[in-house]
Amino acid sequence: MLRLGVLDQSPILPGSDAGAALRQTLELARITEKLGYTRFWVSEHHDTPALAGSSPEVLLAAIGARTERIRIGSAGVLLPHYSPYKVAENFRVLEGLYPNRVDLGIGRAPGGMPAATRALRHGRPEEIAEAFVESLTALAAYLEPERESGEGKELPPRLRATPLVSTKPDIWLLGSSDYSAARAAELGASFSFAHFINGEGGQEAVRRYMADYRPGPLGNRARANASVIVICAETDEEADRLAAPLDLKLLLLEQGKFGRDVTFEEALSYPYTEYDRMRIRYNRKRMIVGSPERVRDSLLKFAESYGVDEVIVNTITPDFASRVRSYELLAKLFAAG
Fold first, then answer.
1. Helix axes 132-143, 178-187, angle to 10 degrees
2. Among 181, 178, 191, which Cα is nearest to 226's?
3. Which residues contact 83 (CB under 8 A, 6 or more apart)?
4. What is the DSSP letter of 147?
5. DSSP strands (E only) in 251-323
6. What tens digit of pLDDT does each residue of 120-142 get?
7. Which ranges constitute the DSSP H helices of 10-110?
8. Comparing C-alpha atoms, which of 133, 152, 132 is closest to residue 142?
9. Where does 3-333 sit in CATH, by number?
10. For residue 25, what are the CA distances in angstroms to 30, 210, 318?
């Protein structure tokens, strides 16, 4: 049976605010655990008015306190911005609080506009971002429970990441191209393809990852999933209606119009050109939208095309109730819970 996880970006809904978005994420984690979802991941975005999730480590601490079994993780920590040592300590704290439940998902995207990147790196040279593989191997060494002080040429002597807990998080590399898939295969990490960002090329990236995988500092077994936008409702017509604001938001993002609230009314009355409608159809490649029957068939075909037995579901609708309902319908379809 296909397993389902959750990626939640803490969307700030029209007429709401960031505090409400964060509280909805906490509530959704509690609900989806009861529904039987495998894992609950949260994202990292900066200077993004429409999304409240800028610090996954902090949010995961709160999610862990409100759940008991579901795996919790980042999707992902944007490692080029940060010291591997500090990331290791953040996730060792989480692992100490919630042992054997934590996924450290790592990305290399900026997660925001250039001004946010400059602020996050606090004047550090751009070369920091180019040393991605070196940062990954350093992070892995810091997370290793049995590492001796100073072991590994890339690490300072007599330095250990604390707290010294006996378990470590699972490491996932996240990507929307074949670059992260290749790095995951050569370093031993698990891999998740962000189909919700790029609707093309993911299947081949995962196939190459599985074929080229070898154990390494980031892990010892090949494991992959894919993340896709899913909006499920009682009927196809209702699901399409719920997807309309997201269709328009994605279209506006392509036009450089960031951070705008999109309401039902605007989405339904917007003066779409034929080119706009073509772009919406293209962006629907990143989405699965429909009634339970349509969504079930589409998700099974999606998973089969990737050769995976787990799909991470990202759902954004204009209101929290319909977002929850979409996850409930999916859980019934795949006997989660």
1. 40
2. 191
3. none
4. P
5. 287-290, 310-314
6. 677 665 555 458 899 999 999 99
7. 18-35, 56-66, 84-97
8. 152
9. 3.20.20.30
10. 9, 32, 15
Q: Which residues pair with 3 in a beta bridge?
A: 310
Closest CA to 297 of 236, 237, 246: 236
CA 102 from centroid of its chain's CA atoms: 14
H/E stretch holding 105 reads strand 102-107
CA dist 335 and 337 (Å) reads: 6
Instruction: Spell out the residues 6+ positions from residue 148 whose beta carbon is closer than 8 angstroms to its own.
Output: none
Whether 218 contacts 135, CB under 8 Å = no
CA-to-CA separations, 106 to 36, 220, 237, 257, in angstroms, rounded: 25, 17, 37, 27
**Residue 48 and residue 144 in contact, taking contact as beta carbons nearer than 8 Å:** no
Chain centroid, CA 171 distance in Å: 13
DSSP structural state of residue 197: T
Structure tokens at 315: 């759902």
Answer yes or no: are the C-beta atoms of 170 and 103 closer than 8 Å: yes
pTM: 0.92
DSSP annotation of 72 reads: E
Compute the residue count for the chain: 337
Strand ranges for the chain from DSSP E: 3-8, 39-42, 71-74, 77-78, 102-107, 170-175, 190-194, 224-232, 287-290, 310-314
Domain ranges within the chain, ordered by starting residue? 3-333
Give the model confidence (pLDDT) of 147-200 as tens digits.
544 445 556 666 889 999 999 999 999 999 999 999 999 999 999 999 999 999
Q: Are 52 and 42 in contact (CB under 8 A)?
A: no
The label of the residue with tokens 């896709």 reads 228
